[in-house]
Amino acid sequence: xxxxxxxxxxxxxxxxxxxxxxxxxxxxxxxxxxxxxxxxxxxxxxxxxxxxxxxxxxxxxxxxxxxxxxxxxxxxxxxxxxxxxxxxxxxxxxxxxxxxxxxxxxxxxxxxxxxxxxxxxxxxxxxxxxxxxxxxxxxxxxxxxxxxxxxxxxxxxxxxxxxxxxxxxxxxxxxxxxxxxxxxxxxxxxxxxxxxxxxxxxxxxxxxxxxxxxxxxxxxxxxxxxxxxxxxxxxxxxxxxxxxxxxxxxxxxxxxxxxxxxxxxxxxxxxxxxxxxxxxxxxxxxxxxxx
Length: 291
Hints:
This is RimK family alpha-L-glutamate ligase. The protein is built from seven helices and 13 strands. By secondary structure, it is of the alpha+beta class. A five-stranded antiparallel β-sheet has the order 11-10-9-12-13. About 40% of the residues are buried.
């Protein structure tokens, strides 16, 4: 097969996707790499030539790569993930609405162009977690304990929307669940809101409940390669973030698994508009304790 990877400079040296690209090459496939922030791309000819079996995106939110992937999809080329699914999770305000309409357990979400606007919320909603709607990798996520903290302007973004959600009390450990085209893997890591909390990153048992939530998340958004951040709050698991093509850290044989998944997904009919089937959860009987 011949594949095209769109890779932003931020991820140029990351194992995901650099090692996946190397693995696909070692298996005899041709992989072209385009760096959207530095490449000169003959757009119309590159997309209409149909030289690639699929285009794969590993880029930052708000980067130029997504537009290129959308252009590829518009010409009928296969994309990994489905381009509409990527747009749905890259905008966290949009993602919150999609998740709620599908009955997923996500916090109530507020949106504003300036953080100060959240001071108008009832005090019962505090503390709040405030973050950019186009953020990624925990960038600019902060815990706001009371309305008075919102008077500061040093955290204001130059452009774009902010979202705020009531803080879910938890132990300071995030559960990151990865889906590799239907295979689910749960890992623990430190919460960006609790930088002083020591957590050893590791794979952990995946409960049937969280497996179901993760599978339903993939089906709701139409994702194949994705990650879901879950917290155990007082009322059970809560989804606090969704990412397309994440790092897959701590996933056993991640490079081989993701590479094989990319090949399977690339063989889908070009231009297919139907969402992928509901992933089959991979569960472990042990039930994690509420946190």
